[in-house]
Structure formats: C-alpha cells, structure tokens
Write a structure and sequence with these properties.
This protein is mainly alpha-helical. Helix 3 packs antiparallel against helix 4. It folds into 2 domains: 71 residues; 101 residues. The N and C termini lie far apart (38 Å).
Length: 186
C-alpha cells in the first residue's frame, strides 16, 4: 500500500498529462494530489517524514509557479531541486551528527560497519546529484512528452536499479547484530 501511496501523485500527473496533453493542467492536479497523499499519510500513520514534507513544499512552490505563470519550466526544475536538496542533506550528514542519513533511515533493520554506512550514504549523494542532472538534460533537450514519460518511468527505473545495486552492496557488508544467533546455539 505504501508503494501505491508514494507514487499516487506522479501517476495522477502522468495520466492527466496523457489525457489532456497539457503540462499546466497536469501540474494543477499534481498539487492537490500531493496534499491528499501527505494528509492521508498523516491520518493513517500519525506522522509524515521530512523527505515527504520537502517534496510537498517543492510541489506546491514549483507547481504553483507553473500554474500561476503558465510556464512548465518551473515544474521541470522541481525534480532537480528536490534531488539536489537530498544530495546536500545526505552529504552534510557525513559531517554533522553521529550518523549519516542513510544509516538513520535503515539501521533499525540492517547492521553494517561504519565505513559501509558512509560509503552507502555517499552513493546516495552521487545518485541524487546525477538524477538532478539527468532530469535537466531530459527536460531541456527532449520534448515535453518525453520528459513526462521519463519523470515516471525513467526516474523510477533508475531508482529501482540503484536500489538493487545498493542491496547487493549491503548484502556484502552486513554483519550479524549482537545476539542474532542465540536461538541456534541453544
């Protein structure tokens, strides 16, 4: 259910764009769809993650500028700005606080050595920075329709490939938490 909820706004954006062929209309629908997504998340779980709030703010700001000024360039910049913000946050977490962001997010279910967490966090920095650049390249070198397709399928596909590679990396570096094999010894 969470996966469906996470992709709800972008799928609605994509469908509206494909039906109308109008980026402004699709963006006008994206804004309330994202607000509904966050409201439902808050209602069903009692909390909203910081990344979701950042995304909501960016959708409202860049989407609002797109609709108000009737200029699709703003919504095309939104994925880049969001990805670059995440890259900066992940990078700064290497130096501020006791743990990198990726470790704070995942450590409840996975145990990795400190250096593996740091490397994984830096991989996310590179991934977010690259996704921002790729988005700009596609947005401003291809047609609007190709960019809309890329926004859903290309970005999702690249993210899934990155997650699989990340999973393989983590599997190589996982350690057993203390007491994990107690049942086997008894």
């Amino acid at each position: 259910m969470k996966l469906i909820l996470d992709f709800f706004p972008i799928v609605i954006f994509f469908i509206v764009y494909k039906v109308t062929g109008d980026l402004i209309t699709a963006t006008a629908v994206l804004i309330p769809a994202t607000v509904l997504q966050i409201a439902y998340t808050r209602w069903s779980t009692g909390k909203v993650e910081k990344m979701q709030l950042v995304t909501l703010i960016m959708v409202v700001f860049f989407g609002g500028m797109t609709v108000l000024l009737k200029d699709g360039v703003f919504i095309k910049w939104k994925p880049t700005v969001v990805n670059w913000l995440f890259a900066v946050v992940f990078l700064l977490s290497q130096f501020v606080g006791k743990k990198p962001v990726v470790q704070r997010i995942m450590e409840s279910g996975i145990t990795l050595p400190v250096q593996a967490w740091r490397s994984l966090n830096l991989a996310w920095v590179v991934f977010f920075a690259a996704m921002g650049l790729i988005n700009l390249y596609v947005a401003f070198n291809f047609s609007e329709e190709i960019w809309v397709d890329f926004k859903l399928f290309g970005m999702l596909g690249l993210t899934l490939v990155f997650i699989v590679v990340q999973g393989l990396y983590m599997a190589r570096h996982m350690t057993q938490p203390p007491g994990a094999n107690q049942n086997e010894e008894e």
